[in-house]
Known about the structure:
Layout: E1 3-7, H1 16-23, H2 28-38, H3 46-49, H4 53-57, H5 65-69, H6 77-87, E2 88-94, H7 100-114, E3 121-123, E4 135-139, H8 142-150, E5 154-157, H9 171-184
Parallel strand pairs: 1-2, 1-4, 2-3, 4-5
Helix pairs in contact: 1-2
Magnesium ion (MG) binds next to loops.
Amino acid sequence: MSAEIYLDMDGVCVDFMGAAIKANGFPPDESLARWLEEHPGSLFPEAIFERSPMAFFTHEYIQTEEFWANLTPFDWFDDLYAELNRLGHVVFLTAPTGSPGCVSGKHHWLIERFGTDFHDFIFTRHKNRLAHNNAYLIDDMAFNTEPFSERDGHGILFPQIWNELNHVDNPVPHVITELEKKLAR
Ligand SMILES: [Mg+2]
């Protein structure tokens, strides 16, 4: 039976954080470099952005369909997606925010790349409900991967500056190696 691979979008496939930083009026590259340098592994360094995560992530522009539909794929996205498809059936698994524009924007992003027949996606915050012994979740947030593993699924943390794998330089080989190890068991 083919492995059921669940692929998070924000922070894994698309540069949500860079776009959110820009929406809040900060320079993305410099801010992310400072984040890694001064607060590696921090979920949200308030010292850099001078506002609460709540105020930051509910910025007016982040509520719009346009914001989500236009998120830029990371350089590694095509490579990651191709490698994962070699190892199993990939379904995007992504959480909606409190704004309807988020879901329609993400849907837009997906069908623009994969066509209107594309349906390998699930929008939910309850990612761990999909966990089982043949299910693998690739996600940049430990608060998603850990509950997934606790429910008998296999959570694989995707390296990012805001998690404990902030020291990993090449995220795709790291994740593929981790997945291959788990599949070999
Ligand atoms: Mg994410």
